[in-house]
Amino acid sequence: MRAVTAQPASPGALFPLVPRAGRGRRAGPERAGVCGYDPSMAGEPQADCLFCKIVAGDVPATVVHETETTLAFRDINPQAPTHVLVIPRAHYADAAALTDAEPTVAADVVRAAGRVAEQEGAVESGYRIVFNTGAGAGQTVFHAHAHVLAGRGLNWPPG
Ligand code: AMP
Ligand code: ZN
């Protein structure tokens, strides 16, 4: 797919944000207080979230793949020749919260990661899908995202 730079009207024009009231909400106390994240707002756009701003087109990104529920764009600080982030359009703090609330969208994220790997020609050589979860594991943006890494040797165990 042709890489495009997201403009303010771009992703929303193709897949408009629709009200998600009552869908997949999770207000369980177990996620309260995760880095200031308000679980009562799960699934809703967050004003202070970088990736919600990319979904809205308010922050530019080099988009390489999109679906009704997901967006994929190149990482601004690539750690491999292919380094793409796949995110749900809906805001959840991490992959576990997303899967609890909207398992089909979690599957959409993983499916989209596979499509990105195909587009990047990485299937034969292999690729890695990573969900950093929690600050201790290196998560810095608390909007669920999969890293798709390929194009160089990927060591195991990871650092
Ligand atoms: P993580 O550390 O797992 O939360 O991953 C967040 C990723 O977002 C990092 O790899 C950053 O390089 C990347 N990132 C931060 N800001 C941007 C941006 N504006 N556009 C694309 N990627 C970004
Ligand atoms: Zn967000």
Task: Give a quick rundown of the structure.
This protein is an alpha+beta fold and 159 residues long. It has helices spanning 10-14, 50-56, 95-101, 103-119, and strands at residues 4-5, 62-66, 70-74, 82-88, 128-130, 146-150. The model is unreliable at 7-13 and 17-35 (pLDDT under 50).
Q: Could you name the key traits of this structure?
A:
globular, binds adenosine monophosphate, six-stranded antiparallel beta sheet, binds zinc ion, alpha+beta, 159 residues, HIT family, subunit A, single chain
Describe this structure in words.
By secondary structure, the protein is an alpha+beta fold. The chain has one domain (4-12, 34-150): HIT family, subunit A, CATH 3.30.428.10. Helix content is 23%, strand content 17%. The chain contains four helices and six strands. The protein has helices spanning 10-14, 50-56, 95-101, 103-119, and strands at 4-5, 62-66, 70-74, 82-88, 128-130, 146-150. A six-stranded antiparallel beta sheet has the order 1-2-3-4-6-5, with helices on one face. A hairpin with a 3-residue loop joins strand 2 (62-66) and strand 3. It starts with a strand and ends in a 9-residue tail after the last strand. Adenosine monophosphate (AMP) binds at residues 50, 59, 61, 73, 75-77, 85, 132, 138-141. Adenosine monophosphate binds at residues 50, 59, 61, 73, 75-77, 85, 132, 138-141.
